[in-house]
């Protein structure tokens, strides 16, 4: 574990990419990350131009991306904080060249074509794309930790998806949920999840003092949730909302249990499932997570309230969409891919 | 209709009371409201002391409350923007003296003792309290318009309850909801709903950049919702959240329909039910309300999204908790009690 | 005064234009305003498209602008809520056709070429432009009330400029300010002042939890301030800041007095100067205005604090940038142009 | 430098105290800080109770304060994040017992009695208090770095004071400021600076969408500013404002220079003065700091704009009031007191 990993980032000027750069810059077992700019991706010369907060001293230049540069600099892992079309095109090339990839886009998260359709992919070679999809590891360490050491392509999960999947998996695996009855996931996210591009939706005047439900029955993270939970799409409703805050997600999840139970039993299910997961905090019965507790950390916080009938359960799941929902999880994945401590650079 | 109504307000220095005072001050068929202060309710001498924004010119003095003052000044309607204990004690006295009351607290909204328990009432004469409860009209004009002209005690609905009841009633009355399946109401409210008292929960640092779920399965508005919807308490889950905004509520409501249907049919149910309701705006399919559209108005905005299977329905209901959720609704009730135009003073 | 004015608005889909439409729609002596769209100014068909909050019932269609339409519909006053280049081009045409104009842009506010330069005007006929400039009335009623009844072109003041000029004029006219010493105006504005166009500067992530000083020594309102205060540009420093709030301006203004004085004397200067100004509220010594008091009103609130030495004075001036700083002031100007009550439609 | 420092904190449940605890918990050369509660200071048993965000794993118990505990646990430095009355009483006791203190309150920052009066101190033994005051080092390392290694009592500066003093000192030391002319400091702070106690001033409804100037000519930090800048109180005006954001200060500082100069020369003055100061970032001419750049860091960011006349200068100074304005600076002081690297635990 004494060797240090050499990471490279494409897309470090986006919100998730910048968080990633900051994490890697202070990671004790990572070398200074190479910051690479795609051709035509803008005129920013250094990370400092885009984010004066990055440092008072160091300057972090962006270099033009090329596969040759990756090779010449001995890059061990390439982080793609790029639009999904770019990730879709580049991952096969990376595979060919033997470069391990952690992709923060939605390009490689989905197994079923019906779910991928929402991204509009028109792969020239569908069979090849299918093969690489099957090879990709869905980078939620709490579910797929064992596959990460050998992974060559890690599909870093969506932010909403992470909050929902971590909130539901223990209950579903334990078999206590009446999934036929239907599950409701009411999720609320801060604005950084909408990206850095200025649009009418991210204009301060449209967000401040407001709350908006959007993409009901149409959100891209829906497919991830269904596939990872191994349920049918008819068994779950997922409604995202845009909160007037910079960062953080809170998902309120409603399930009916097959039989009445106690708060202690529900608590035990969560505690037991996450006993070896350093980045999931299970709240004691009677306490609920809040967005402010998880923001600026890599934790996913889970709590719940059980109805007096012992059968209707409300799970509250909170995380920082830029950390556990993106860049922090990407580093967690990197740590596990390279045999580093899971919490390195994330404490 | 040429005669003008003389209103009085107790509690005009609270958030809802102040909105009420502002509405009545510019109401074309109301005389200047009498502003009355309960003994020991603080040292504010004029409304301007508490709210310098009220005017640059006029001064609005608070007078000590007494039943004699009410009589002497020919008060037609007494608005109680007071704690529920106060309203619980004062309404019988008002009845005795023949003073019509619009009560903004939760004191007289609930028929069932199991729901009232949450307010901790210990009525000395339970039978008398029951009688007055039965006499009280639940002041949601969209449901009980016809009872208002003769009402002597109007229980102005809770803000969350208004948003949920207006979002569900048309569907339940039409008989299309599978209520056995269970209904989920995920509601989010601005901070003014939490009152003017400074507490750790309303401290800017605890609210800003945050979102909190609270009082799950325990919120006081739950009883109103169940009673007015005429369902059982096991058929609905209601989760309130505290939003980092000053005012506004958005409720996301999840129901399963008994049979698949179309968006046009759902839209028709809402349009038809609210065709004579001037303060409910039904959004066309494909458009959803946002909090910013309803804030500073007396509208409740309703929209919906229907799943591709035509059977799972998400209703979005928005309103301003201080207006349609409190003071605006109180004025709407006054208008109907006194034969004024329903929209007078609220346009 | 029984006749009603027919207004028309170009640019009602911008923030100030929309506020103007709302004010005129409920103005008791204005007919329903004609809403006109410039060619190529977007695909919005009705005001409701851009602002669903405008009403639940009425629909407010935008019509294509033409001078013929203005004439055919008997328009009495044309409000230009347009970019300054458009206003610069259209005002001469309006003059030719005898249409009275209230222009909300900066096109006609400035007498001195050095100040106009900042707008980049390249008038084909400079002499004609100068003539029209001299004819234009700077529409700050508190200073130029008497010129408004006969005005054909009213240059509605800038929002920052209104707050600063109203805060300083009484002191300068009274001759108590040591202007040689220099005046400092530190102004802070909400985001609506930056316009509806989504840019990186108005992105929620750049504004929320932040404060930014900008355009120091370079802001366009500087020229207005200097000209209206009749001081030299070397005598005043003006620094605007962008606040993380939707609307409102607070200007903190620092002056040195020629001689020590008392708070009572300063108060008297303000009270006396604004005794006939219905939209300026002078706060008593010891009380300072806050943005929240003036937002959603047409008031400019003024207060001050005097140093123990009686010679250094801090004036605080607050207003709503979309009302007293734009649309409200435009209506106030219309009222005075047409002999209506100054407060009509603004209470 | 291999030995690790043992810190103790009184007041870790306040905002600054909590930041301090977080910093020390991850400080590479500090042992786990002892968290001490004053008698009667509340019922919080662990830091986690007050701040669930502190960790998912560790529990941080608060122990009752006693001097014996300090001695028994080998405490090297006692941080007082306590009200100034408490700090005033305890510092002499600490001196007696040979415990080095970093005091985050205003108790020991002021040399002149006229300035101390604002804190209302009634020292039983004025001479003793004066002696200890003279012994105290004003803990602004950029000014007093050399005194820190031997300091026994460090008076950690106020947040506003830090932003103003760092923005002005280079110019005053260089002798370019016309101080006679007067200096204006217009400062804006986030709400955490107002403390954790819920009051009407920190209620979300009073802060959100608002801006307030307060304590003009009366703020407690004024004395620090005057003493540290070595100017007279008549030469500076300081106006604090409360911003609707959780944390961060931006001070806009206005000075007149004795003679016209260039932006390059001003930049050189700042660069040169802070060349060895790791926590001051001087922005290049044409760039101004924003609050968002400094929040969550220990930097004070400085930038400026020079008028075309070369003589009127606007300096913008930004910092995080809880870090460089409080807890971060306290750690920086500790580092220098104990011969550690100045940036340890603060990068």
Give a quick summary of the entry:
4 copies of one chain form a homotetramer. The first copy, chain A, is α/β, with parallel strands linked by helices. Chain A has helices spanning 15-25, 47-50, 67-72, 84-97, 113-116, 126-135, 141-144, 159-174, 204-207, 221-229, 263-273, 291-294, 327-337; strands spanning 7-10, 34-37, 63-64, 77-80, 100-103, 137-138, 153-155, 183-189, 212-213, 236-242, 249-256, 280-282, 300-306, 312-319.
- Quaternary organisation of the protein chains: homotetramer
* Percent helix range of chain A: 25-40%
- Corresponding CATH architecture of the largest domain in chain A: 3-Layer(aba) Sandwich
Per CATH, the class of the largest domain in chain A reads Alpha Beta
Q: Structural class per helix/strand content of chain A?
A: alpha/beta
The whole-number mean of residue pLDDT values of chain A reads 94
Shape of chain A: globular
Biggest sheet character of chain A: 7 strands, parallel
- Tally of helical runs of chain A: 13
Low-confidence stretches of chain A: none
Query: Taking strands numbered 1, 2, ... along the chain, how are they ordered across the largest sheet of chain A?
Result: 3-2-1-4-5-7-6
Largest interface: A-B, 42 and 42 residues
Number of strands of chain A: 14
Q: What is the CA-atom radius of gyration of chain A, in angstroms?
A: 20 Å
Taking the alpha carbons of the first and last residues of chain A, their distance comes to 18 Å
Whole-number tally of structural domains of chain A = 2
Order of helical and strand elements of chain A = EHEHEHEHEHHEHEHEHEHEEHEHEEH
């Amino acid at each position: 574990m004494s060797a240090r990993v050499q990471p490279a980032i494409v897309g470090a000027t986006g919100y998730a990419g910048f968080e990633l750069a900051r994490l890697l810059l202070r990671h004790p077992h990572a070398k200074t990350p190479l910051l690479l700019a795609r051709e035509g991706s803008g005129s920013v010369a250094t990370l400092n131009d885009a984010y004066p907060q990055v440092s008072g001293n160091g300057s972090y230049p962006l270099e033009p991306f090329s596969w040759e540069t990756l090779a010449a600099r001995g890059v061990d892992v390439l982080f793609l904080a790029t639009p999904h079309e770019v990730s879709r095109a580049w991952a096969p090339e990376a595979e060919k060249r033997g470069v391990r990839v952690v992709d923060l886009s939605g390009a490689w998260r989905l197994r079923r074509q019906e779910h991928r359709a929402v991204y509009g992919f028109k792969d020239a070679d569908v069979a090849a794309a299918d093969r690489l999809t099957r090879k990709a590891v869905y980078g939620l360490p709490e579910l797929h930790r064992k596959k990460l050491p050998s992974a060559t392509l890690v599909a870093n999960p969506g932010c909403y998806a992470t909050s929902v999947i971590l909130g539901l998996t223990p209950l579903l695996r334990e078999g206590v949920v009446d999934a036929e009855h239907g599950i409701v996931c009411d999720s609320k996210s801060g604005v950084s999840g909408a990206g850095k591009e200025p649009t009418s939706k991210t204009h301060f005047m449209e967000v401040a003092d407001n709350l908006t439900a959007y993409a009901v029955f149409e959100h891209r993270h829906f497919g991830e949730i269904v596939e990872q939970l191994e349920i049918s799409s008819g068994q779950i409703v997922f409604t995202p909302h845009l909160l007037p805050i910079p960062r953080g997600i809170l998902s309120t999840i409603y399930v009916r249990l097959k039989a009445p139970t106690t708060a202690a039993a529900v608590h035990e299910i969560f505690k037991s499932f996450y006993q070896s997961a350093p980045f999931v905090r299970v709240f004691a019965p009677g306490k609920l997570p809040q967005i402010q507790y998880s923001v600026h950390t890599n934790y996913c916080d889970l709590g719940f309230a059980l109805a007096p009938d012992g059968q209707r359960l409300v799970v509250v799941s909170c995380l920082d969409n830029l950390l556990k929902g993106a860049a922090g999880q990407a580093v967690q994945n990197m740590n596990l891919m390279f045999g580093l401590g899971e919490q390195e650079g994330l404490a």
